[in-house]
Specification:
It is built from eight helices and no strands. It is mainly α. It folds into two domains: 83 residues, no CATH class; 104 residues, no CATH class. Helix 5 packs antiparallel against helix 6 and helix 6 crosses helix 7. The chain is globular. The protein starts with 16 loop residues before the first helix and ends with a helix.
């Protein structure tokens, strides 16, 4: 029997694990036409599960954006024009100058602060929502790396709200930050030396 806490975390929990499995199956289909049909079926299932996502102006692309994100941008299908790309979500930014400036939370680093500033400059829409989620996930990874193995999501939401001067507001209802603590590399974690006496064959 499989338990959810023993399974890999899913990117967008609101769609459920079955959608994630459907996407994994879709990626394994070799025939492109069949893969496209499967992708359209997944989109219809996503619309049925979370219909409110299509209520805004970006109704035509929001589900395709989420499909691309959940597939880690590795699902080769015919996306509609304007679908989000990996380059847009990773927000490649130039390193900002911080002469004599100390950030409020050192464990997030200047890079996160720069990313938050870039996100705040974006227009509201699926691209910005995806970017906000990406930044929050990276903040949680950074926090877990330097502080402790686990942290409540509300702490990340609060810090992101403060660092964005109140321009980014995430809540447990609209965002889940699922990260496996075992995937976090803790600083100073050294490999145990091999006991040469025990390893030596007699």
């Amino acid at each position: 029997m499989e338990y959810n806490n023993q399974l890999p975390p899913i990117t967008m929990p609101e769609y459920g694990r079955n959608i994630q499995r459907m996407i994994a199956h879709c990626r394994s289909i070799e025939d492109r036409e069949e893969r496209n049909r499967c992708a359209r079926t997944i989109i219809r299932a996503m619309e049925a599960i979370v219909p409110e996502k299509g209520a805004g102006l970006d109704k035509e692309t929001i589900y395709w954006d989420h499909l691309a994100i959940m597939a880690d941008f590795e699902l080769d299908v015919d996306y509609p024009e304007g679908t989000i790309t990996r380059e847009e979500i990773t927000l490649k930014t130039e390193k900002p100058d911080y002469p004599g400036h100390l950030i409020q939370y050192r464990y997030y680093g200047h890079f996160i602060v720069g990313m938050i500033r870039k996100v705040c400059e974006m227009e509201m829409g699926p691209e910005r929502s995806a970017a906000e989620y990406f930044v929050a996930m990276q903040m949680k990874r950074d926090y877990m790396t330097w502080n402790q193995e686990t942290v409540e999501d509300i702490k990340i939401y609060k810090d992101l709200f403060e660092l964005s001067d109140g321009q980014i507001l995430l809540t447990p209802e609209n965002c889940k930050l699922n990260i496996n603590p075992n995937t976090i590399d803790k600083p100073g974690k050294l490999q145990k030396p091999i006991n040469s006496k025990k390893a030596k064959k007699k």
